[in-house]
Amino acid sequence: MAGGRLEVFWSPNSQDKFITWGSDISLYQVKNTSVKDDISSTHSLQISNSSRAYQLGSLTDVTFAKCLAWLPVPELEGIIAIGQMNGRVALTSVLGSGEASPLNGKEYTSKHNRQCNTLAWGLTDPYVLAAGFDKHRSEHGLILWDVTKGGNDSNRPFMETAFGDTVTSVAWFSHSHTMAAGVNNKQLRLYDFRDGTKHTSSTNTRAVFSIIEDPFVNHRIASYSDASVCIWDVRNFEKPVLSLQQSKAVSKISWCPTHHSFLGVLCKESTSLSLYDIQNANGVAAEEMEPIPLERGLILTDQQNETISSFAWHLNEENRLLYSTTSLNIREHIVVDRITLNWSPSSKLVWNCGKKILQYIDETDSVYTRFGDVSVIMRQRAVEGYGLEADFKPDSELMQDVTTRELWSWVDTCRKLAQSGNPLGVNFWGIRSALRLDTDGVLKSEVFHVPWNGVETAKISPVNVYRSEERNQALRLCGWPYDPESSILGPLLEKLQADGQVSRAAALAVFHMKIRKAIKILTRSGIQKNQVSYQLVALALAGFTDNRDTLWQQEICNMNKTALDDSYLRAAFCFLTSPSEKYEAVLNEIGMTVRDRVGFACCFLSDTHLSEYIEHLNRQLTKEGNLDGMLLTGLSSDGLNLLQSHVDKTGDIQTVSLLSLHASNLEVSKDGRMQQWVNSYRSLLDSWRLWTQRAKFDVQFYKGNPNGAEKPPQQVYVSCNYCGKGISVFSGTKGKLHPLSRNSPNVKSKLTGCPNCRNPLPRCAVCMMHLGSPLASWGGPTEHISKKPSINAITGVSGVTSKKTHPFASWILWCQTCRHGGHSAHLLEWFAEHSECPVTGCSCRCLNLDTIGHHIPVIANGHD
Amino acid sequence: MFQARTINAEHKDLIHDVAYDFYGRRLATCSSDQSVKVFDLDENDEWRLTADWKTHAGSVWKVNWAHPEFGQILATCSFDRTAAIWEEIVGESGNSSQSKNQSHWVKRTSLVDSRTNVTDIKFAPKHMGLLLAMCSADGGVRIYEAPDIMNLSQWSLQQEITLKMPVSCLSWNPSFSRLHPPMLAVGSDDTNVASGGKVFLFEYSESSHRWSKAVTINAILDPVHDIAFAPNLGRSYHILGIASKDVRIVILRPSQKDAYATCPTSQLEVLEAAALVDHKSTVWRLSWNITGTILASSGDDGCLRMWKGKINCAALLSLKQSYLLSISTANYLQNWKCIAVLKGDGSGVNPEDGADRDKAVSAATTRYFKLGAISNPNHVTTH
């Protein structure tokens, strides 16, 4: 073999040994590297992260070797047959003379000097060696020897055939004494040596190299020529079943011994291995359908100037293979089966690992939390009743989310304003509407000179504050004091301090020129919480002067931007040190909530600057899909654009859908996008089995829409079996009833007969009392009440736990199939123990008929 | 060390597909061993095998659940040239203890119109009715409808589309929106690069009641193995994930001026959002999370990779200076990045792996594609 060429073969005899054939033939044993012994040994190779191969022996005199075959006899571990250029076939042991075997050192020769092309040990009789030679006019091309034969004629062939032919490859079949041979570069022949030496069938093809039998389909062989691999069915030998064209010349093919009809094909000068999964149909379809190969490319090396020279499948271990490269590296590789995967609505990600195992992770896994899956947050929020309950729980995750908190505090402000009839609140208008920016209104504000409170006013000039009715409206939305006396400032600051937002309170005090108040706030909190930093800031504030030449102004100007990590304090100092009406630093302080930034702007910016700033901020927030911008836009069509942007960015359909609950009587609710969000969110809740939450959402949605135009009509009525009139308390107003429609709305009054014709209602199949009668304990095994709510009519009932206390316990339940029914609590008890209908002689499996019954709703205090 | 939880599927050959039902409480698998298995999540959150039956006379490629509104229905497709509709039957025979643990699935119909390997089958979104699409290796895409949802043995072939190349996968657009027509994407695994784009989008016209080809995505020339529309929960655009030699993400934006009513075949703006090469090998399957914000892909590198579109900070900064970009354009300035890597055997996850590759992808202006990679590049050979 050429110097760069390195072949690998797994031992047919033991699981952990292989030989390499390059400039020498070496035997290696694979060991796990967890066994940390002599890693530095020169005669070992690291073949994978976890395994190392140790050299056990080698043969150096292999210059003339042309082909080899490893004797598949476990007792004779290292015996290989080497076919040489000159027609000699030598049996030798890679363990050297250490292996004492009568076969070691045996030699067989062709009569003439001609190349031995191929060798193959028998499968049924392992001591029969088949050798294929180049042609000679007076000799057979295919010779079989029995290597166990001793004596003088031990070299005599056991059988000879293919007279005067070249045999390039041979392969034994695993059943009986049959073999396939590639002859004269133009023919594949099948031999059965029980029938003599004449071949039994043949086909003309150029694919005569490396015949191999599929270990799973023993009538299937593969062979190759140049750049095409052919797969044959020996029962139908005329033409190949499949022909796999390669882009380069093929150098090795091999069936995977552990995987059904899985062929590995290696091309010359290739960095990858092609794997073909040959698909077959069976049964009737098989006769009409040809097998189809599914191809995969397996890149084994990505180093430059290195290509794969050989590979070998491990005989037992699934998908394990060994390969060698032109840079004489030997490595091991586990071929990964194709992975399929799926992601469930309830955030479980499942995939397969081979044939037998599915792996899954869900949101409870630490790995999953790294994904930042918004659906997990939404589901958790939905379970906690987000948007459906009046207030957030103080410790909930939602309260940590500043943007969401700010959004709902705006909604809250609007609702409060609405109570006083303020159009801002009623229509959920934003700042832009308040300032009439959306109607091209012109702001006309008065300027007030507001003096500083709590410092020596003589020294410090007052600040210009702008006021107008529009600005006051806007300030209301921001929750800022809007009257000149700032009457609500005091309570506001108290509340902020109580909430622990000390710096914000201090900054607001500063923004209202109440510097002494700010100092008080800071010192008090500093003492209470033992935070020196607040006290230091208070000290700094105390020295406030607006004289730009003073040391205070210069120093504060220089240091505050970086030294303070609290954005509110930073903003406060920026305000104090900025030259008149240059408030960019405050306005662009991202750490301040939009509400406060806008409130600040509404106080201190002139009309033109204010509208510029608001529009600027609006565009920016809309682009970012930042819900803070809702304060600016309100629930207008601009607001919808912002919400769309938010959905596009984050996928958070929940918040926007919940907002729609408040917008349901506004013009925007007719927007198709809003309807799409609501529908999507409802479907999402359904797939999470949060039916209760979905129903509550629906209720609120329709409640907010007083016109009731889209309110769904009542769908089921209970009617009397005798007179066909409705027995429900409310049904009288609904006009005509369908006599066949039946079911169970409220039977509020204790009604056991039809109010119209006075005939009694049907009896409960379990307690035999007339329906509508008070629930009686029926003496059965009442302890085990199924958690499964079911039967067609009341899928919405969740978590029936006690028949006495549950409001649905005395409801009437029907099976839609057998038309038997009774009190819901009784039926649930019955089906906890039985699978058939309680009515004698009725074998209806009422409970099982309802497949939704398998899906237990998520109970409100947690998931699953 | 992290280890994923396991379900013993015990198939006898390679598993080709796993499918969750609408609630994520049932799981169906299909395999080359020609069988389908159904697992149900019980009260203790354990997956239990409730059905296992032989479905086809060849490898079963795909399995898909119908919306539960139509009943417990599965569709399968196979190498044996057929697709089948299965319905679960409860409580017709057997004693009660057995019927609680094992369910019985009956074949309602066999769809035999394909003359070749049926490669994919999917039920349409619920709002379109009981509709399914299947595709086959001869280039056929067939859309069937059950006119009577109570009778699952009757399926009428609504339309048959023939493409000039084998079709390997399809995906319905799950969007609820009525602002644009229903959409179906199909992908081809034709290996011939010269045969052109491998992803086709079809749109349904309400007026003609026909599906017609709207777009061919010419940028994707390599064989496509899987295709998946992201669930569209109110997004203004659609995201299509494509598994080819790498993971491609394509954004489809219905042009907003043409209302659906006035223009039956709406105009679609096709934007290539990402080509993610981290697998460095063939990508086989894709799946989106329920909100369509994270994409999971599996490749020949034996890994699962999670991808997320993150807002590109640099782009956002530039936005603050310039308001020229329209609002909608800004949303595409997402940078899709690998956020996590899981090994196929569910063992370790290497966080740095994902981070490293992030850099590599964003830095690479000229991409260098690899067709595959060994699963662990740290092999060191010493002589």
Automatic annotation (TrEMBL), chain A:
It comes from the Eukaryota. Pfam families: MIOS_a-sol (PF21719), MIOS_WD40 (PF21720), zinc_ribbon_16 (PF17034). SMART domains: WD40. Residues 720-847 form the GATOR2 complex protein MIO zinc-ribbon like domain. Belongs to the WD repeat mio family. Residues 378-604 form the MIOS-like alpha-solenoid domain. InterPro entries: MIOS/Sea4, MIOS_a-sol, WD40/YVTN_repeat-like_dom_sf, WD40_repeat_dom_sf, WD40_rpt, Zn_ribbon_mio. Keywords: Repeat, WD repeat. This is Uncharacterized protein. CDD domains: mRING-H2-C3H3C2_Mio. It comes from Daphnia galeata. PANTHER family: GATOR COMPLEX PROTEIN MIOS, WD40 DOMAIN-CONTAINING PROTEIN MIO FAMILY MEMBER. One of its GO terms (biological process) is cellular response to amino acid starvation. GO terms for cellular component: cytoplasm.
TrEMBL record, chain B:
Keywords: Cell cycle, Cell division, Lysosome, Mitosis, Nucleus, Protein transport, Repeat, Transport, WD repeat. Its main location: other. SMART domains: WD40. InterPro entries: Sec13/Seh1_fam (IPR037363), WD40/YVTN_repeat-like_dom_sf (IPR015943), WD40_repeat_dom_sf (IPR036322), WD40_rpt (IPR001680). WD repeats lie at residues 8-49, 276-308. It is found in: Lysosome; Nucleus envelope. This is Uncharacterized protein. It comes from Daphnia galeata.
